[in-house]
């Protein structure tokens, strides 16, 4: 196969100054296309994934030593366009990856960390950061067993959809929080037993009344009042897994969680566990979990919802990334939020 032409420059979203207003602190710039080393591949992006943590990264919270300008974005799906001499990948192979700086037309990724996928289906990008966060955290910290009661907050989001379905496959009763009647119906479609629209129902009141024995496992990503209600309603020997604090990501003064002063007392009273989970700390577990989630998806045992905006404003270019992030933080997305690159067509999924 003839080598594809690689341009000398590309578009990339760069963080020009730290802050939580992603649109304000970033810029779409022309930069040189990077060159892969012997153990790398150059990926031409087709889709990039949007994560709530994109705001934290732009604010410099993950690595305060990084000096602007630095590239934004965490994950992408695309085709290998150039491979280093030690790489096993070939031109044209479709891969997904997780690497800082993914909001770009081209990204250099170490060959050892890319994951080959059978097609350019944007659902596969969801299996990366979002699917792995749910799968690994619930295995390591959730101790899921048949008959347990599981609460998933932000259950209709990119990672919540996986947590709901993984818990259901384990034989658990699953409660899911969401913010609209439309999302309630979405949660029912993926098997959630008790969707709770917290805009209409009070989460603490529902849990206290309907689950007096408490919640065995909580998969929590919101913080503040949602965190407080989950902590209060944990069962004896319950487990609360913190995978994010979405409610505080836009706070310039720093992230504020729930009533953290109550954690030691609640843990003592209930012999329960509150654990944090950050995917980069579990790199060795990713390959086996990717294989598991991909298999479940291909066998149609789990559904993967992909959101690329609405018909009036589909997200089909890197210039749409700030709009997609705003869309996420206003609670509009159902499933994984994905942006096309280079004005690609909106997926039919």
Q: What features would you describe in this structure?
A:
- By secondary structure, this protein is α/β, with parallel strands linked by helices.
- The chain folds into two domains: about 10-120 and about 310-340, Quinone Oxidoreductase, Chain A, domain 1 (Alpha-Beta Complex); about 130-280, Rossmann fold (3-Layer(aba) Sandwich), CATH 3.40.50.
- Helix content is about 30%, strand content about 25%.
- It contains ten helices and 16 strands.
- It has helices at about 20-25, 55-60, 125-140, 160-170, 180-190, 205-210, 225-230, 265-270, 285-300, 320-330; strands spanning about 10-15, 25-30, 40-50, 70, 75-85, 95-100, 105-110, 115, 150, 175-180, 195, 215-220, 235-240, 275, 305, 335-340.
- The strands form three sheets. Strands 3, 5, 6, 7, 8, 15 and 16 form a seven-stranded mixed sheet that branches. A six-stranded parallel sheet has the order 11-10-9-12-13-14, with helices on both faces. Strands 2-1-4 form a three-stranded antiparallel sheet.
- Strand 9 (about 150), helix 4 (about 160-170) and strand 10 (about 175-180) form a beta-alpha-beta unit.
- Helix 3 (about 125-140) crosses helix 4 and helix 3 (about 125-140) packs across helix 9 (about 285-300).
- The longest helix has 20 residues, at about 125-140.
- The protein is globular.
- The protein starts with 8 loop residues before the first strand and ends in a 9-residue tail after the last strand.
């Amino acid at each position: 196969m003839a080598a594809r032409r690689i341009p000398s420059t590309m578009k990339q979203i760069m963080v020009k100054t730290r802050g939580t207003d992603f649109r304000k602190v970033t810029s779409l710039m022309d930069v040189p296309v990077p060159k892969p080393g012997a153990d790398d591949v150059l990926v031409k992006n087709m889709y990039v994934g949007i994560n709530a943590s994109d705001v934290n990264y732009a604010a410099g919270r993950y690595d305060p030593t990084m000096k602007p300008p630095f590239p934004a974005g965490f994950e992408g799906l695309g085709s290998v366009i150039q491979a280093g001499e030690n790489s096993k990948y070939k031109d044209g192979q479709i891969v997904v990856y997780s690497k800082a700086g993914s909001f770009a037309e081209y990204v250099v990724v170490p060959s050892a960390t890319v994951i080959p996928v059978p097609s350019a289906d944007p659902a596969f990008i969801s299996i990366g950061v979002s699917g792995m966060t749910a799968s690994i955290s619930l295995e390591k910290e959730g101790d899921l067993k048949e008959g347990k009661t599981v609460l998933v907050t932000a259950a209709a989001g990119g990672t919540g959809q996986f947590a709901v379905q993984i818990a259901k496959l384990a034989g658990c009763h699953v409660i899911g929080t969401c913010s609209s009647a439309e999302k309630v119906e979405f949660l029912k479609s993926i098997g959630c037993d008790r969707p709770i629209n917290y805009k209409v129902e009070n989460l603490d009141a529902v849990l206290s009344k309907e689950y007096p024995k408490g919640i065995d496992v909580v998969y929590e990503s919101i913080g503040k009042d949602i965190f407080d209600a989950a902590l209060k309603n944990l069962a004896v020997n319950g487990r609360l897994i913190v995978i994010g604090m979405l409610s505080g990501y836009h706070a310039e003064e720093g992230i504020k969680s729930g009533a953290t002063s109550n954690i030691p007392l609640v843990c003592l009273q209930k012999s329960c566990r509150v654990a944090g989970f950050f995917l980069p700390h579990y790199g060795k577990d990713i390959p086996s979990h990717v294989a598991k989630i991909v298999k479940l998806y291909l066998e149609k045992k789990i559904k993967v919802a992909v959101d690329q905006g609405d018909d009036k404003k589909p997200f089909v270019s890197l210039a749409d990334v700030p709009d997609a992030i705003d869309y996420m933080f206003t609670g509009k997305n159902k499933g994984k939020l994905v942006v096309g690159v280079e004005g690609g067509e909106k997926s039919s999924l």
